[in-house]
Amino acid sequence: MDTQQNTALTRALAEVPGPLPTRGVIHIAIPHTERFTVVGNHLAQHPDLSCTAVGLAVLIQSLPQGTEISIKALAARCKEGEKRIAAALRELEAHGYLQRLRHRLSGKRVITRTVFCNQPAALVRPRRPVATAPAPHPVAPAPVPVPAPIRVPAPIQVPVPALVPTAAPTVPEAPVATRVPPAPPFVPLAPLVPPPTAPKPPRPPLPQPSELSAELDRAATALLSDLRRHAPQFTLSEDDIRQLAPAVATWLERDAHPDTIRRTLTDDPPQPLRHPAKLLRHRLTALLPPPLPGTRDLVVPTRPRIVVTPFQTCDDCDRAFRSPTPGHCRDCRETREHRGEDVRVAA
Length: 347
Prior knowledge:
mainly alpha
């Protein structure tokens, strides 16, 4: 089996045109006849995209129209996790290859459509109008041949009626060419995605603690310096640690545990990790937890208590009336006042 493979490889190398290079890759290009996708070098050799983003773009480009490409659907197809796939999709969206559009349907239903463009730079170029082919001229029909008159020999003396020659059909004249109105001036379409050279929005500032005490600064500096023990790719310089320490101090000020901060900063980094300080700056800013609520914020407000006045029975007429204390009803009080008797007034 090994001999057949080596023989096939040797035969393929012999068919490579030109001298073989002494170093580097040697391409054996076999033309595809089915199940292939054309990928531009602007994507395959993109200097700012990670290999995960490039591979994911090639996978999306090879899928048929209407295939689900959500994060969970792509994670079911690939070996990468959902976090890495989400980061790769954000890279493709930042460079114009991917765009998510919100579309409102009837009945107040909103859906998200994902659009993938294999050449985002071509969307911003002005498109040339399609040249219309001139209308073909009508072809004149061929003339019908006219039969020659038949001549009868004289000795036979048979009267032959004279044949009337058929008139040749008239050839219709070619119509006069009508003037085609000039095409309207071309207006370039608005780009669906921003070009790769579009200015990027300014980065948000790093979080700052309300008061950077010496203890917070020392704890934040120690946490950043200790990251390389847990993840060697996060080896930072002294200048990077000095710039990122206030943001880590803000996390510590908000009662975030050091182990939680370490896991959040170093979990699932992109491969290869070229700029660890930039990644830490982004995660410290975008994933900042809110301050813990105070004791008063967690107290559930109580409803105001409704006081119901109880029923009392009048001492004279036994009529029920509402009063906080026993006594006489209103009618009995008025009667007693008219007679000059003592009245027990209900409070």
